[in-house]
From TrEMBL, chain A:
The lineage of its organism: Eukaryota, Fungi, Dikarya, Basidiomycota, Agaricomycotina. This is Ubiquitin-conjugating enzyme E2 1. It comes from Leucocoprinus birnbaumii. The active site is at C88 (glycyl thioester intermediate). Keywords: ATP-binding, Nucleotide-binding, Transferase, Ubl conjugation pathway. Belongs to the ubiquitin-conjugating enzyme family.
TrEMBL record, chain B:
SUPFAM superfamilies: RING/U-box. It holds the Pfam family zf-C3HC4. Residues 1-43 have a biased composition (Acidic residues). GO terms for biological process: protein ubiquitination. InterPro entries: Ariadne, ARIH1-like_UBL, E3_UB_ligase_RBR, IBR_dom, TRIAD_supradom, Znf_C3HC4_RING-type, Znf_RING, Znf_RING/FYVE/PHD. This is RBR-type E3 ubiquitin transferase. PANTHER family: RBR FAMILY RING FINGER AND IBR DOMAIN-CONTAINING. Keywords: Metal-binding, Repeat, Transferase, Ubl conjugation pathway, Zinc, Zinc-finger. GO terms for molecular function: ubiquitin protein ligase activity; zinc ion binding. It catalyses: [E2 ubiquitin-conjugating enzyme]-S-ubiquitinyl-L-cysteine + [acceptor protein]-L-lysine = [E2 ubiquitin-conjugating enzyme]-L-cysteine + [acceptor protein]-N(6)-ubiquitinyl-L-lysine. Residues 134-181 have a biased composition (Low complexity).
Length: 220, 634
């Protein structure tokens, strides 16, 4: 597929020449059809200061079929799977147009970080967190940026002082809540798991009875 | 008998057995003569619907070839042309966008032609703020997709320069007036490259001066090679018949003449391989259009047999609500599978229910149920009940477990859907219905209340567990019906083997005794009849399983018992030893029994069908389309 190669080479070259957009695209191996893109987290968002890597696979029928992208860097975002990095973005699916390029798609990803779309979530638990308490969500997203994307806090802050990653903060939970159920004799990991699943955060915590949590904890 | 000999020449055809029975048992049913007239009057292509008296367990239907369907489509297009005053390609796009509902289309069109034209992607919307800016986000049309990601495209426009290299000049004559309903043919003729600035295709970055370029009315220009690759990819890989312009956010749809110029016959191709690709894509496109039309038209359905291109029209079963009163068993008239399809008029198969001949798949008639796709002929049971029963039977199989755990049915069109990634916002590929994967409710109701899904899911989990324990309690009862159901299916299959053996024996007998060919044919008719009756019996068990207790059920089971007894007697006769001396007696017995069995079968089918028409049957469970039962007993 000659046209596809020509196009991809040109796109890679364009990215290299363009110094203003901060988008980087690198080859993963020898093939120009498997790439790694990266871009800085947008300013004024919890992702600011982080550097986000994206796995890019160019399908055979590119550019007539959309490029396949997923985050390599873990991102705490309603439209990105916190486990797999899969992205829910219309232009990567049915709204794809052949005039879109790797760079423009990367810029769209960047803008997706600016404007989450919790009503159309990829990661339901993160979306719930976002809807329940935006500020708490942002704290967690910031923390993820620090520990996974090399955000600014990584130099000072929590990570350095404790030396280990804070599982409670990763899950976006209140340490007091976790301590309470831990005090009942449950393992910390299990408590974090259940509370995260139940979205035991902010106002929502008062709506979930203790019995309900214990019931979940006791499930095999 | 001398005249009967004529038939022995063409030994395997469908007509013989019919004739034989008619010749020997003229009294078996009153309208046998009508049936014969119909059989031989059958057209080559189109199966003549049942004339005259129709049994209450049969429906009227008509078989159409692909070209016949295309003719129907052309009529609809022509109608829109004359009513709305648009040309054919526009009418076709309008109809496709409006799911071939011409009444609603005309109404909407008369109301506001511009909106309709824009929604169908025929014309570009009124130029927004700055018509000269090439990639200005095009306002989403009323029916179009959500605009959730508009932020991204806005950002794109400000940040990105890539992708618009050498795009059409902003100064070019902008957009054709969208208010003109009757506009001239599209401007997709090749455009000479602008002299001042050489054209570079924004997709493949080809800048050869002699590049052939094309665009739709929106003036988004690309090279013809990209158009070809794009259309082929959309049509062949995605099965899309409404292909949008390649520009981002542009909602204009490629018209049929445009697609024809790009990939149709005579379109330019770089190589013979490319030409072949184009040819395939073009014919696939034609097929997609027919599929879309048939899919949107309730009285039409494709013949589901592999490789068959016929369509069946059955207005009686067009309405879903009619499926509680009729069992629309139809046939497209063709036989065979794949390359061996023969489109010869069948000898009164399908609707008349008589004369299905030819064993095995090769000569199998294309009989299917118009109302559902569970089984070709599930008379006398109506579709919802048959579906329920088969679902129940299949629930134990591994495939069913897999399907159950990995797929769901679209709540709108019942297509089975596997979710292989992405978020819970699903859009059915077939009917474009948007729904939530978690609760299967329409997505439009979700919005900000997305979280109700969580609670719903938990409740459903509890319900599922309850249902499981209940089903275990009634397993005993179910097995009673299931064993009999499966037994009849098995017996029907075995009787075919039996027939093969018997036939051999019969042939030998023709040589060793003075019996003629025609005199030993009674066996074939008997086996066929037994098989047909076993199919009926099989389904009566599915029916009885769901029938509510009461007099009606008792009567039904009496009829069922009579038929079953008669069929078992007949089977016993067929399995007995055959000696040359006893042939005349056996023949008499078998023939009598066959007639009797046939009558009993008629009674069961007739009575059950009438019962559905009268709304006589009550169920012990909630059956789709029926009123809820008063007291559920099981």
């Amino acid at each position: 597929m000659d046209a596809r190669l020509r196009r991809v080479n040109k796109e890679i070259a364009d990215c290299k020449n363009d110094k203003t957009s901060n988008i980087r695209i690198d080859l993963v191996g020898d093939s120009p059809f498997h790439l790694k893109g990266s871009f800085p987290g947008p300013e004024g968002t919890p992702y600011e200061g982080g550097n986000f890597d994206v796995d890019i696979v160019i399908p055979d029928s590119y550019p007539f079929q959309p490029v396949k992208m997923k985050f390599i860097t873990k991102v705490y975002h309603p439209n990105v799977s916190s486990a797999s990095g899969a992205i829910c973005l219309d232009i990567l699916k049915d709204a794809w147009s052949p005039v879109l390029t790797l760079k423009s798609t990367m810029i769209s990803l960047q803008s997706l970080l600016c404007s989450p779309e919790p009503n159309d979530p990829q990661d339901a638990e993160v979306a719930k967190h976002y809807m329940t308490s935006k500020s708490s969500f942002e704290d967690t997203a910031r923390y993820w940026t620090e520990i996974y994307a090399g955000g600014p806090g990584s130099k000072s802050g929590r990570v350095a002082s404790s030396g280990t990653r804070d599982d409670i903060a990763i899950a976006g939970l209140d340490p007091q809540h976790v301590a309470r159920f831990e005090g009942l004799g449950f393992a910390r990991g299990q408590v974090i798991d259940v509370l995260r699943r139940l979205n035991y955060r902010g106002q929502n915590a008062s709506k979930i009875s203790e019995d309900r949590v214990v019931e979940e904890l006791l499930k095999p | 008998m001398s005249s009967d000999y004529e038939y022995s020449d063409d030994d395997v055809d469908y007509y013989d057995d019919e004739e034989m029975i008619d010749g020997t048992q003229d009294d078996y049913t009153g309208d046998s003569d009508d049936d014969n007239m119909m059989d031989f009057g059958g057209d080559e292509d189109i199966k003549v619907p049942q004339k005259g008296k129709r049994k209450s367990y049969e429906v009227d239907f008509e078989s159409l070839s692909q070209s016949a369907v295309e003719k129907l489509m052309a009529e609809e297009v022509e109608y829109i042309c004359s009513v709305c005053g648009v040309d054919e390609s526009v009418a076709s796009l309008l109809l496709r966008h409006n799911k071939w509902n011409k009444e609603r289309l005309v109404e909407k069109y008369m109301d506001n032609p511009t909106t309709v034209l824009v929604a169908a992607g025929v014309t570009v919307p009124e130029p927004s703020a700055s018509p000269t800016q090439r990639s200005a986000p095009i306002p989403s049309t009323p029916s179009s997709r959500r605009s959730t990601r508009s932020a991204s495209s806005r950002l794109l426009n400000t940040l990105s320069g890539v992708g618009v290299v050498g795009g059409p000049k902003p100064t070019k004559s902008p957009i054709t007036s969208p208010t003109l309903p009757h506009h001239t043919p599209r401007s997709f003729k090749p455009k000479p490259p602008s002299s001042s600035d050489p054209f570079v295709c924004p997709i493949c970055f080809d800048d050869t001066p002699s590049l052939r370029t094309l665009s739709l009315d929106c003036e988004h220009t690309f090279c013809s090679n990209c158009w070809t690759a794009y259309l082929v990819s959309k049509i062949r890989d995605e099965g899309e018949h409404a292909v949008r312009c390649m520009a981002e956010g542009c909602a204009l749809v490629c018209s049929d003449p445009f697609i024809r110029t790009v990939i149709g016959p005579g379109s330019p191709a770089e190589s013979p391989a490319q030409e072949e690709e184009n040819k395939k894509a073009w014919s696939h496109f034609q097929e997609l259009l027919v599929r879309h039309y048939v899919g949107c038209t309730k009285r039409l359905k494709f013949c589901p047999y592999p490789g068959c291109t016929n369509t069946v029209s059955c207005p009686a079963a067009a309405d879903k609500s009619s499926l509680v009163t009729v069992v629309p068993t139809v046939s497209c008239g063709a036989r065979g599978i794949g390359d061996q399809i023969t489109n010869a008029a069948s000898s009164g198969g399908g609707a008349s229910g008589a004369g299905s001949s030819g064993w095995g798949l090769a000569g199998k008639e294309h009989k299917f149920c118009f109302g559902c796709n569970v089984e070709a002929d599930h008379r006398p049971v109506v579709c919802p009940v048959a579906r329920m029963w088969l679902k129940k039977c299949r629930d134990d199989s591994e495939t069913a477990n897999w399907i159950k755990s990995n797929t769901k049915e679209c709540s709108n069109c019942q297509s089975t859907i596997e979710k292989n990634g992405g978020c819970n916002h699903m859009t059915c590929k077939k009917c474009k219905h948007e729904f939530c994967w978690v609760c299967m409710g329409p997505w439009s109701e979700h919005g900000t209340a997305w979280y109700s899904c969580n609670r719903y899911d938990e409740k459903a989990g509890v319900d599922a567990r309850d249902a499981q324990s209940r089903s275990r309690a009634s397993l005993e009862r179910y097995l009673h019906y299931y064993n009999r159901w499966a037994n009849h299916e098995q017996s029907a299959k075995l009787s075919i083997d039996l027939y093969a053996k018997t036939e051999k024996k019969m042939e030998d007998m023709q040589i060793t005794s003075s019996l003629t060919w025609i005199e030993v044919q009674f066996m074939k008719k008997a086996v066929e009849e037994a098989e047909r009756c076993r199919m009926t019996l099989k389904w009566t068990y599915a029916m009885a399983y769901y029938l509510a207790k009461g007099n009606e059920k008792d009567l039904f089971e009496d009829n069922q018992r009579d038929l079953e007894r008669a069929v078992e007697d007949l089977s016993e006769l067929l399995e007995g030893p055959i000696e040359p001396e006893s042939i005349p007696t056996l023949r008499q017995k078998v023939t009598d029994k066959t007639v009797y069995v046939q009558k009993r079968n008629e009674i069961v089918l007739e009575d059950t069908a009438k019962g559905f028409l009268d709304g006589r049957w009550g169920w012990n469970v909630v059956v789709e389309g029926f009123d809820d039962p008063e007291g559920v007993e099981y």
